[in-house]
Each structure stands twice: as C-alpha cells, then as structure tokens.
Amino acid sequence: MMSSGKSRVKMRPPRNRDSGDVNFDESWAVLSTAMQEMYRKNASRLSYEELYRTAYTLVLKKHAERLYNSFKTFVAQHLRDIVATELAPLASNTANSLLTSTIGGGGVTSTIAVPLAAADKREGGIRFLKAVKAQWDDHCLCMRMISDILMYMDRVYCKELQLPLIYDAGLALFRDHVIRNNEFQVGEHIYAIILDQIQLERDGDIVDTSAIKAAVLMLESLTEDKIDGETVYSRSFEPKFLRSSVEFYTTETEKLSRECDSSQYLIKTEKRLQEEYERAMSYLSVTSEPKITKIVEENLITKNIVSVIRSDASGLTFMIANDRLDDLKRLYRLCKRVDPEITDLRGALNARVIQQGAEINQDALEVLKHPDKSKGVTAQNAATAAAFKWVEEVLGLKENYDRILNGTMDGDNQIQTSLTNAFSSFINQMNRCSEFLSLFIDDNLKKGLKGKTEDEAEAVLDRAITLFRYIADKDMFETYYKTHLAKRLLGGRSISDDVERMMITKLKMEVGFSFTTKLEGMFKDMKVSNDIMQEYKAHVQNTDPERTIDLTVSVLTSTNWPVSLSTVESHTCVYPPEIERIKRSFEKFYVDRHSGRVLTWNPNMGNADIRVAFRKRKHELNVSTYAMVILMLFNDLADGESLTYEEIKAATSIPDNELIRNLQSLAVVPKTRILIKQPMSKDINAADRFSFNVEFESQYIRIKIPTVAYINKTETETERKGTMDKVDELRRYQTDAAIVRIMKARKTLEHNILVAEVTGQLSSHFHPDAALIKKRIDAMLEREYIERSAENRQMYHYLA
C-alpha cells in the first residue's frame, strides 16, 4: 500500500498483459471509486499500483480524452457538492453579519435583524475562512494523489496536446467551482471577509492573521487561464482591497484633518504607513505593499501636507519656534516619500527664514531710525548695539536652522540650498550688513576674544565667516574692514597679530588672494615701520644725543590703507615748534634713504605721552596727538589766562569734529578735566573759553585720557553716502578693468556675452548692475579701448 503523503512514488509502466481492448466504463468506475475514497481520507486502503495500471491501460488504448474529461467532470461535481453542503451554510450565517431575534406576544411574532458585534463578525468570518482552507488543503492533497495515478496521462496525453496537467487542472477546477461558484458566491464571500477583517484591524481590533494569510496564499496559488502571471488574488481580490482602501483613507484624511493638530496628524500618518506595510508583509501579498503605500501617501500626505505645514497653531512655524525636532523629522520623512524634490517643505522653510530675517532687519532699522527709543541703552550707543545684536541674531538664526537641518533632515542638500538662498536674500536686503559684520569682527578682535583659547577664537571667527559668505557686496565689506583694521593696528588695540592674520587667512580662503592683498600690505607696512624706527633711533643717538622728545612714526603705503587716512585736507594740524623740528628731522632721515617718496602726516591716529606739572604734583598724561597740540598752547599762557574755541582752532588748524572731541576729553569728562571750560556744559560752542586747570588732582601718576569717541560706531547717513561714493568709484574702475581684460583675451565679443562674463568676473566682489556694465562699456567705446562692429552693432572689437 502507498502512503497518502506528499512524496511521489516511482512507478514503472506495467507489462502489457492483455493486448485486447479495455472496457472504459469498468475501468473508470474503479478509478472514480478510488478518487472518492481519497476525498473521504481512506487512501490507505487503495492499491496505487493497480490504479496506475488501470489509468495506464486506458491511455494506452486511446481512451485518454475520455479519462481526462471524466476526471474533470468528477472533480467539478465533487467540489460543487462540497460548496453546497460544507461552505454554503457557513456563508449564509455570516453573509450579512446579522443575528435574528424573534419577538413574541399576543400570538404575533416578528423577526428583526441585529448587527453582530465585532467579536462575532471576526469569529464568524474566520470560521468560514478556516473551512475553505480545510477544503483547499484536502483538495490539493487529493490532486497530488490523483496526479500520481494519472502520471502516464500527464506525460503522454497532456503534454502532447498542451493541456493543463492533472494537478493544475484540479486547481483550476477549484477556482471555477468553489471560488467562482455562481450560486453561492464563495469567492466574493472570501473577499468580503478578508476586507472586513482588515477593516477591523484598522479600527484597532485583533484579528486571526494566520487564517487570512492562508486564504491569501490560496488565492495567490490559483492562476488565471488566459493572463500570464495573474492570479485570482491580483485579478479579483486586490482591486477590491485597493478600492476599499481608497474609500477608507479618504474618510481617514478628513477625520484626522478635523480632529488632529499637525503633530498628531504626522504621528498617525506614519503609524498608518507602518501598519499597511506590516499588513502587506505579514498576511497579504508583498506585491500589494507599494500599491497600498501609494494610496496612503496620496491621501494622507500629498493631499493634505500643505495644510499641515501651513497650520498657524501647530504647523512648521510652531514646530521651529518650539523646537519640536521629532515633528520636524517626521514632516521631512513624509514629504520626502511623496516628493523627492521636497518642494512644499523647501518653500515653507524658505519663506519662514525670510520672514524671520525680515523681522531681524526691521528691528535693527527701527533702532537706527529712532535710537532715542531704545530701552536699556543710551541714544548714542543704541545704533552700535543694534549692529552687534543684528549679527548675533542672524548667526543665531543660522545656527538654529543648521541644527534643524542636520538633526532632523539628514543634512539634505536641496534644503541646504534653499536655506542658503533664503539667508542670502534677507541678509542682502539689509543695506548695512557689511558695516555691521565688520563692526562685530572689530569688537571681537579688540576685546571680545580676550582670554579665549586659540580654538575658541577660531570658532568666533568661523561664525563671522559664515555670515560673510552670504554678503553679496564683498567690496563694501572690504572697505569697512580695512578702516576698522587700520584703527586697530595704528591704535595698538588689536588683541593679537596672530588672530588678525588668522582672520585674513580665512578671508583669503573664501574670496581669493586679490581680496586680502591690501590687508596683508597693511601688516607689512607696520613691520617695515618698526624696522625704520629702529634705524631712526640709532640715527638720533648718533646725531642728537641730547634730544628729550622721542618720536615713533608708522610709515604707511597710501594705496594699502583706507582713503580717509591718505586725504591731506581732512587731517591738517599746526604742530608746536619743538614737534615741528622733530618732524622735519624724521622727514630728512626718511627721504635720504627713500628718494622720490613723499610723506603726508596723519595726526588723527597718533598719540603722545606728556609730563604736566600741576600745583600739587606732576602727572604723565597719555593723550591723542591733537590733544597734545591743544595742551601745548597753554604752555605760553600765564595762570588764569584762557583761549576761546576759535582761538584754539586758528592756532592749531585742527578740523572741527576732531577739535570738539578732544576738547570734550580734556575739559568735560569729570575725571580728566585738564582744562577748565567756561561756561561748563557737555557741548562745545564757538564762544566757549578754556583755561589750564592747575588744581587738577588724581591718585594716579600716569593717566590715560581717551578721546571721546563716536560711541555710535555705525556711520551717519552723511558718512555712509561718502563710503558709497568711494565704493561706487572703485566699482567703476573694477568694471573697466574687467571689460578690458575680457576683450583683450577674446578680441571680438557679442554684447550679452560680454555682460555675462563681466558679471561672472566681478560677482566674487559684488553683484554688478547690468546698467553699470552698459555704462562702462559706453565709456570704453568713448575712450577707444573697444569699438562696435560695422556689420553688427551688438558686436565689439578690441583695439590694441
């Protein structure tokens, strides 16, 4: 006897014992009886060898067609009987998910339908799926045993006529007479139960996934006849599943939008995506996973993500303001799923950065317009404080978005580019950004970095460079930086030459050698000046050893230093005779060694140490060069005599603004009133008189008297206009030079190409206006550096 297990038995064709004809009906009766026993699970009683010989003989005697058709008829009838007796009763009990209840009274009865509870629905559906699964398993087992008996027909008849093999034909019969049974709609009931179980699970109930998985595997095993690769699952069940999912997630989207804030919406969306993924992987087909995922994404993300981002109460702005990093991470992940370009999120981030930047700009401009309204600071230094605050707030904003970008969005390059454009936009809308950044660096290089380690100092400079990268008009920054650097170097107020050089190196790495050439030249001038002064002091020792006044001079190359330092008219001064003699001595010494050079003295950046005798004691005063010149006037006055403001101005030729500042330092500041002002007030007027304060006292022998500075270090509108005029002039020169360089190299060039190349060359320094380039091209035409082509007026030729 043969086992009814899955292993196939090797059989040899029986010997041909009877060469006569065979009675098909008798033989088929034997085979059909055996098949019935198999379905009744009595296969152990059968002789497989005799059954195989019977089937072999029928095929050999040309009855294969009748045998094949009889097999199909038998199995089809058996399956129809199974549906009617085993599956139909279960289907009718769960078809409508209802219970019936009889109400009696007064001889009247009525039947009402009561909805089943979730548990009853779940259990009834699972019972039906398990029943189908049991019939399916029995059928598959019987088909394997029958195919063993009819193996010879498979090899000879089915393959020759390209008919389905017995096993495959049996599965097709199950598909047609069970799953697609027209009378009892078993398949539709299976689909409805699976969809109902999925809905129960979506609603939070627990379902028997093993029964559903078995049903899905059955549907995947049943293929379609005429469509290659398609199964009953993909052709019949999956479309229903996807349609019901669209309906569910359309409703779910509306519900979540109505009931959830943005954070909850994102959490539940991710949860739904994970649930559908796990459902497809665990008991549905893996082929359904991308399809159901797309439905969830289209409904919960694509259709509603803009509303989530723009929500006033809980959207992107709220998440950023309240540091909701987890929500931002979810938002990024979900946006990335449906749009690789992250268009909506990038646009929202861009708009938010520009909005926050505009607020920072507006706050700074308000202080500049109304400095007297600032709280906690005086009107004089409010503008300077606003400049430092603007830089700190912009850098703080940048650092916050960098943290968000790297912590929640994986440093996404597209978002990085969008943020860079946003920062560049609002920073360059602040027309004083270059000045503010230069002031920030100046303050740190004078005192802000004092006491910091080298690494800490470099970190501060890196923050400044971060902001510098966004500034479009880098030539404007260069102008301010050069002025501030000059004051630090000449006033000896820089905390460290090494830190200064570190900053210049960083600027060179950003914009190239040409940008820092003059800055490095300023350092070179200071070193050369030290060497010159050592030679001069040795010269004085040899030629005038009795001299009592020491002189230290910084010799500067006019082209390296700010224009304001090399303008003779703005720094005039009449020196005392003894100082004038020393000046001429140095001039002669310098010119003898550097013939052809001209020295222009700039007293506004100098200082002097002078010894002054008061009634009680002598003090050494450290004052500006202008203050020294003013004090020397009182050497020739008797006690009690005075000079008016106009007399001091006439005697010294010091410019008004510098004279007022120095007189305020000497006569108004309480702790350093070397002079007595009449009448006493903070302001200096033309009629004021000044006399030497012989009664001055101080506990210190050595006293530093700082010049009353423009506490507001930012420029006034007049000063700013002057700076812009200088920058515009430099830009004209740079544009002219770029045009000549390009035309000299290219010889002939069309107008638009020339404009584009000039823009490209100058963009590292500033963003040239097309109108400026056109105007400079016209100037080059007038000066005959280039000429228009006679054939094409848009074409230019270089003239050597």
Helix content range of the residues, please? Answer: 55-70%
- Taking the alpha carbons of the first and last residues, their distance comes to 111 Å
Q: How large is the share of residues in beta strands? A: 5-15%
Number of strands: 11
* Global outline: elongated
Summing up helix and strand content along with how strands pair, one would put the structural category as: mainly alpha
Q: Residue-averaged pLDDT, rounded?
A: 85
Number of separate helices:
29
**Alpha carbon gyration radius:** 49 Å
Unreliable spans are: 1-9, 97-115
Largest sheet: 3 strands, mixed
Q: In a few lines, what is going on in this structure?
A:
This protein has 29 helices and 11 strands. By secondary structure, the chain is mainly alpha-helical.
Defining traits:
single chain, 800 residues, mainly alpha, three-stranded mixed beta sheet, three-stranded antiparallel beta sheet, elongated, disordered N terminus
3D architecture notes:
Mean pLDDT is 85; it is low at 1-9 and 97-115. The protein starts with 23 loop residues before the first helix and ends with a strand. It is elongated and about 155 Å long. The chain is 64% helix and 7% strand. The longest helix is centred in the N-terminal third of the chain and has 32 residues, at 118-149. By secondary structure, it is mostly helical. Strand 10 and strand 11 form a beta hairpin. Helix 4 (118-149) packs antiparallel against helix 6 (166-179) and helix 15 runs parallel beside helix 17. The strands form four sheets. Strands 3-4-8 form a three-stranded mixed beta sheet. It has a three-stranded antiparallel beta sheet with strand order 5-7-6. Strands 9-11-10 form a three-stranded antiparallel beta sheet. The protein contains 29 helices and eleven strands.
